[in-house]
Here is the input.
Amino acid sequence: MKRVAVIPAYNEERTIGTVLSELRPFVDAMIVIDDGSRDATAAIAEREGAIVYRHFLNRGLGAALGTGMEVALRQGADVLITFDADGQHRANDIPAIVAPLLRGTADVVIGVRTKNKHAMPVGRRIANTMANVITFFLFGIWTSDSQSGFRAFTSQAARALDLARYHFENMEVSSAILSQVARHKLRFFEVAIEPVYTSYSLSKGQGFREGIRTFVRLIIYRVLH
Amino acid sequence: MLIQYLLILFVFFALSRVVMRAKAHEITTREFLFWFFFWLCAAIVIAWPNSLNRFADVLGVGRGVDVVLYAALVILFYVVFRIFTRIERIERDITLLVRRKALEENDHEPR
Here is the structure.
């Protein structure tokens, strides 16, 4: 079973090195999609043994994930893991995330941050709840953390999602993945993870305006697809 | 009324632009005809605002001017939608281009 990690990264030189060195023991390959960074992200990632693909323009999280998953499939991945480059996720959680796929009881696993309520700051928790409710009403799928970037897919599920076919800019990709999960009737499972909230990883999250934008784009996505 | 003179003036300006574009072959004959008649109709409606009243009666709208306003609003919404979907398509195409370049670059690089 080949496990491939897909790490979208945009100007993450501060954290990408540590993230990759912690991740390495848990996966067979690491694919970093450098989404038009203007810093040393790509160089550091290469030094840490990742395969780096470079978008020459910044196309957003959705586009980077699309590229990364396509590359992972081409490299013969059996299990694909998406992982944030900002140091928010713990590589130690990977065995738990992957377990339902290996057991054959799920096609898609989402690492949810809300099981341990107090790990998340209040403002972030409210925003996440709103995102979950919106995701439910638009796509009919309930998850306790619709915006999580820590996920695992079987190769069949990744092929069915076919992210590369759509255009997603940023955070809407998380909800859109769920909508595809529902559409293709994939079995999905939530696993509690322990997020690491540093001031750095928090500054990387989406603000209020970005959130509204995501909301509008999700509605449009819902109408068009 | 003054507003009518101002609007007519604007229509003439728009018409002159349409003719200029056509002379420079920047728009097709079909586009030229469309815009020419569009502005001509606009001029007629501005000069004789009551000319549309019969039409408005048929539709059950109060005044001819209102018909124009309603129609303009609907058309504008439609145009915004068209532009929106086109931008979405362009965005998606740019992403596909960027992705293809990323994939090709790595294929050529010996590792």
Notes: Chain B has a mean pLDDT of 88. DSSP finds four helices and no strands in chain B.
